[in-house]
Amino acid sequence: MGKKSTVEEIREIVKGVSKNAEPVIDGAMKRAEPLIKDVTKKAEPIYNDIREKAEPIYNDIKEKAEPIYNDIKEKAAPAAKIVKNRSEKARKAAKTVSDDITLKAAKFSCKEEVFVQYNHHEIRTTDIIEKAKQDYVSKGNKPSNIREIQVYIKPSDNAAYYVVNHQETGKIGF
Questions:
Q1: Which terminus of the chain faces fewer neighbouring Cβ atoms within 10 Å, N or C?
Q2: pTM to 2 decimal places
Q3: Which Pfam families match (predicted)?
Q4: Please, what's the b/e burial string for 10-28 (b: 16 or more CB within 10 A of its CB; e: otherwise)?
């Protein structure tokens, strides 16, 4: 057989300790049982005495507090009704906002592609925009300078014209 792993050795040690501790625990429980019964027996009259003395005070406080509680409940009822109505309105508003966000998220998560087809050609508009950006950069400009780009596709010229940041223009062929 192979060598035992550390985990297996620890498990064996724990089993041995548990097995040896069992009689000790049982003995301690047997010795503690009469003490527990004795403490319970001695505490019971004290508990009953305290309960007996506290019960009239508790009932008196309850009796005095009940009209105050009912008065507060009565005065708070209109406010509670308003809160309930407003929370219902807030719930409806939150649902409306949630629905709006869901619709907007669906719009943004939708994959969109636009193709321009003419004669025997087909080209994606995203490809045209990328080519326009590449052309702009190839003229010595930085890609980070592009804040805005407009692209005008003119199939009759087999070309697209672009304007970067409303200033610089260029032309790319298909």
A1: N
A2: 0.39
A3: DUF6465 (PF20069)
A4: eeeeeeeeeeeeeeeeeee
